[in-house]
Amino acid sequence: MNHRKWNHLKRALWDSKLGMTSLFLLIVLALGAIFAFLSPYDPNLMDATSQFATPGPAHWFGTDDYGRDYFARALYGGRVSLLVGFASMILATAIGVAVGVISGYFGGWIDSLLMRALDVISSIPSFLVLLLLSVFLKPSVGNIIVIIALLMWMNVARIVRAETMSIRQREYVLYARASGQGANGMIRHHILPGLVPVIIVGATNNIASAIMMESSLSFLGFGVQPPNATWGSMLNSAQGYIAQAPYLALFPGLLILLTVLSFNVLGDILRVGLEPKLNRR
Length: 281
Fold this sequence. Notes:
The protein is mainly alpha-helical. The chain has helices spanning 3-14, 17-34, 70-106, 108-122, 126-136, 141-167, 171-178, 183-219, 231-238, 247-274. It is 72% helix and 0% strand.
């Protein structure tokens, strides 16, 4: 990414109060997850004498039905939710970029075969596939990451394919091809550098989608298994206590909402910052 685009990106982010707020929130959430071990409470330690303690100085988010500190569980749950989001994004982006570049650069029967396969996979309801794979695979963070990534790479592949087809027709790429440069060199030195803005924006949106998918799986009981927590599993556990202890659903729900909204806001800012022509009216 050249300095001009980097400067446009910094200006777009700096000029957006909502963008700076989103970035600040994500940094706070990430630091909270990283330094969760500093919490004085064990997230899985049960205390029958402290059940349903309301939020206060002793327990910032209160305690759950087992007397466990809810703030500590939210911090450790954020570790899993954010880990799944980032790891799924990386894997999905890698698959999508590989398929999109191969399809867009070589074209012909390779393009037709890959795109028809992508259409078939995309026609299957994602949530149905999530549930089926979760039933047959042992619940674990690794399996959840793989499952979510396999359901997210298609959009990245389509976007990357379209951009690759555009880049390969540019003059400097045609000149490099005429000079005898091979396909590997063309892709590595000319195609991939031009795809960086598209990849960054797509990856940002994928993080938000992955966190939502993980939360949905955990909410339905197919995610990380107890006593470990994620924000989705905390919401699932709170279902039976909405009237008695509404804060049990409020805090994890709010954390999911803020995280997903923040990534979506940053994705929009990245899109405009990396493609300044979108600012023109």
